[in-house]
Amino acid sequence: MTDIDPKLSRLYRETSTEGPPAVLDAAILAAAKKQVAIRQGRKRSSSIWARWMVPASAVATLVLGVSIALLVEREHPETTDDTATPQIAPRPQSPPPASVKETAKAKTVDSAARGAAVKKEAQAPVLRPAEPASSAADTVQAEGRAQTTEPRMQTESTAARDAAMGGLGAAAPAAPTAAARPAPMRQHATQRSPEAWLEDIGRLKREGRETEAAEQLAEFRKAYPAYAVPESVSK
Amino acid sequence: MQQDPRTDEALMLAYRDGDGAAFEALYGRWRGPLYRYFLRQCGHAGEADELFQDVFMRMIGAAANYEPTARFSTWLFRIAHNRLVDHWRKMGREPVDPLPSDEDGDDCGNNPPAAEDSAPDRQVERRELGEALMAALNELPDLQREAFLLAEEGGLTLEQIASISGVGRETIKSRLRYATGKLRNKLEPWR
């Protein structure tokens, strides 16, 4: 300790007894209590947040994830259906000449139509007649045809997209319109290969259904203007 | 009222963690010593009140980050010392260390002892002795008086006082020796 004489120290302590006024005591003690209350309030609010932070974050993540998944499915339905994803096959022939703008537009429309076609295949394969060509080839050919029959395809693709979304309850008002069309005609336009189509036309001719055969041939030429139609069919 | 058995540091930690009663106990222990420290150094109750309140407010504000790295009394009187130095600076008062030129302290090694505790019938004389001590204390140079007060009111060791004052242990020892010698000299007539 220090070298202060104990007697002097004792005399000092006996004499020195002053203290702060009571007003100061009250003010300081009140400030101390107030500070405790403030700190406890902060601690309580932070502990409430800490308790709910983990579940709240989990719920937010879940909601966000589900929302994104639904959004992606609506935007690109074909990417979510792995079993029905068609394989891209080489084009059997070059598409008819079209402007760049038209091509881009048709591709946009076609991707939706392709998705719808794939969905339809997956959902109701019995509606489709037996065909020699693969669905992938059909899809690619349909893409080519879409460039020439743009307005009709647009309507069809809308119907197809709505049909694809039908499972989510977004039943399309356009669906009945699409359903009202004769099914074989739609199949000619969207699904069959040129060879199969020509074969059908030949069959119609052989059966004596000349008018139908002529209509189909005209439609075929519209869709494939560069395709060499065999004489047996074109006669 | 029963004394809280906890140490100062434990009380301060308890207050930091939200125990308001711990602060009351701590305040009860240190209100007198700290107040007298300021009262002796300022010589004016108004200034002492202001400084005293300011130090406790600082202590309350710093409680959230309090860690017992030193004795509580050292921590408290360090705040008080710094506040007093600020106050002196604001008042244009510069405490000087008179040790090199101070001749009065030379006889401190051969001092007469302080007055003996007297019989009950000498209470008046005892009170007068106390008043003489306070007057003598008041006449001490600031730094010697501070060393004396930190030792008496704070119960601090030479090392702790040196740490608070920012000087060496030997310097504090000298200041205390000179201060004690002067006080004894002043009390000589009451022997």
Overview of this protein structure:
Chain A is mostly helical. The model of chain A is unreliable at 118-137 and 142-183 (pLDDT under 50). Chain A starts with 5 loop residues before the first helix and ends with a helix. Chain A has helices at residues 6-15, 22-75, 77-80, 100-123, 135-148, 150-164, 175-180, 183-190, 194-206, 210-223, 231-234. Chain B is mostly helical and 191 residues long. Chain B has 2 domains: 8-90, RNA polymerase sigma factor, region 2, helix turn helix motif (Rna Polymerase Sigma Factor, Chain: A); 101-190, Arc Repressor Mutant, subunit A, CATH 1.10.10. In chain B, 65% of the residues lie in helices and 0% in strands. The longest helix of chain B has 23 residues, at 20-42. Chain B is globular, with a radius of gyration of 18 Å. The chains are: A mainly alpha (235), B mainly alpha (191). Chains A and B meet through helix 1 and helix 2 of A and helix 2, helix 3, helix 5, helix 6 and helix 8 of B.
